[in-house]
Design goal:
The structure is a single chain. The chain is mainly alpha-helical. It is built from eight helices and three strands; from the N terminus they run ααβααββαααα. The protein has two domains: 130 residues, Winged helix-like DNA-binding domain superfamily/Winged helix DNA-binding domain (Arc Repressor Mutant, subunit A), CATH 1.10.10.10; 31 residues. It has a three-stranded antiparallel beta sheet. Helix 1 runs antiparallel to helix 6 and helix 2 packs across helix 4. The protein is globular, with a radius of gyration of 20 Å. The protein starts with 8 loop residues before the first helix and ends with a helix. The relative contact order is 0.16.
Length: 185
């Protein structure tokens, strides 16, 4: 089987959503990870430039909570944080750069290539499984906060991505032609 290709940030959001809460420690750390994953841009090499205040507003928490969460995410290797300082003004900081970390990339590859085996028949649910289900339910609720999250995009093949990209480009061309015709007429 060919290695999976990371095509959209929704794939990263789904990967983070599948991880148990114990990976992050607190729900706020997971929220910050989801905000960063949703914001990553493929065209910029899976990185994003963003202020801590912006992340805090999107994650519905304080900037200090975001700073703590970023330390956890950086030490775990899920994200790389490049803090930028002003060259001459000591107290002035630029927005930091957040990049996809090696741990998150390998988790994405591992979770996508691992087949899901569903159980057939009725089974007894252990207390550990019940707790795992609760963790999954809480992570899914945080994923659903993102209005643009689309489960269909997570499972697209590279050919489907190319076809949808060509269709959207054609749609944009026709819309531009209509706009030009309206402006002339």
């Amino acid at each position: 089987m060919a290695s999976p290709i990371l095509q959209h940030s929704d794939q990263l959001v789904a990967t983070i959503a599948k991880l148990p809460m114990s990976t992050f420690g607190t729900p706020r750390v997971k929220e910050v990870a989801l905000v960063l994953a949703k914001s990553l841009n493929k065209a910029q090499g899976w990185s994003i430039v963003m202020r801590v205040k912006t992340i805090a507003a999107k994650a519905f928490c304080s900037p200090r909570t975001v700073q703590r969460a970023l330390k956890v995410l950086e030490t775990s290797g899920l994200f790389q944080v490049i803090r930028r300082k002003h060259a001459t003004v000591e107290d002035f900081n630029f927005a930091s750069v957040y990049k996809l970390g090696p741990a998150l990339r390998s988790l994405f590859n591992q979770l996508v290539t691992t087949p899901c085996h569903g159980s057939r028949g009725k089974s007894l649910t252990s207390s550990k499984q019940k707790q795992s289900n609760k963790n999954k339910a809480s992570s899914l609720s945080s994923v659903n906060k993102f209005a643009l999250f689309d489960r269909k995009r997570v499972t697209k093949t590279p050919e489907e991505w190319e076809a949808s990209q060509k269709a959207s480009q054609e749609h944009n061309r026709s819309a531009l032609q209509k706009l030009i015709a309206m402006m002339k007429g």
